[in-house]
Amino acid sequence: MNAYTVLLFIHSWLRWGVVALAFVLLFRAFTRGRGGAPWTSADRGLSVAFTAALDTQLLLGLGLYFGLSPFTPRTGAALGAAMKVAYLRFWAVEHVFAMVFAIVAAHVGVASAKRAEDDATRYKRVAIGVAVALVAIAVGIPWPGLPYGRPLFRF
Ligand code: HEM
User: Fold this and answer.
1) What is the pTM of this model?
2) How far apart are CA 130 and CA 19, in angstroms?
3) What pLDDT shows up at residue 65?
4) Pocket test for ligand 1, best of 91, 99, 100, 137 (most atoms within 8 A of CB)
5) Which atom of ligand 1 approaches the CA of 66 most closely?
6) 98 closest CA partner among 39, 138, 52, 152
7) How far is 155 from 151, CA to CA, in rounded Å?
8) Which residue's CA is the closest to the ligand 1 atom numbered 39?
9) Low pLDDT (below 50) residues in the chain
10) Which residue ranges make up each domain of the chain?
């Protein structure tokens, strides 16, 4: 194992942490939020954990993108060339755009929930941010079977 495979391994597995937290947050918003239950410290902890996991993915992703990955462009000319090849274009732009969009959506949702005047609105804003993030993540994941597909579980 070298630094590249270690980072890729963590980035690959942390995706499931992100996805699991997203589903737990959505589940709580649909059950507790719609049922009129109060927003608790568990909800706050889960939303902080969700954005922190995404921020960690961003850091790991930047390390891979600009440092260690052999699939990402290092120069403008390489970026231009990568745009013509589906496999390289996915790693050069599509994955990053989808994931950065997801990270921004999650942060906006969680931050605007903090300013909400009541708990039902708080749950709703978190749910919207998480749902938008989850769709973008689903688009950006290199699902097996796609030309740029990767294993669901990396060992
Ligand atoms: C929600 C956040 C993110 C998730 C869920 C995610 C998920 C993934 C997954 C599942 C892989 C494939 C891992 C494998 O091969 O087993 C991957 C690879 C990669 N991701 Fe992300 N990613 C995220 C954010 C980012 C960001 C923001 C960047 C760039 C700034 C990035 C850059 C990369 C790179 C460069 C690779 C590896 C390409 C290679 O194989 O060398 N990722 N990511």
Assistant:
1) 0.95
2) 10
3) 98
4) 99
5) 35
6) 138
7) 9
8) 69
9) none
10) 3-140
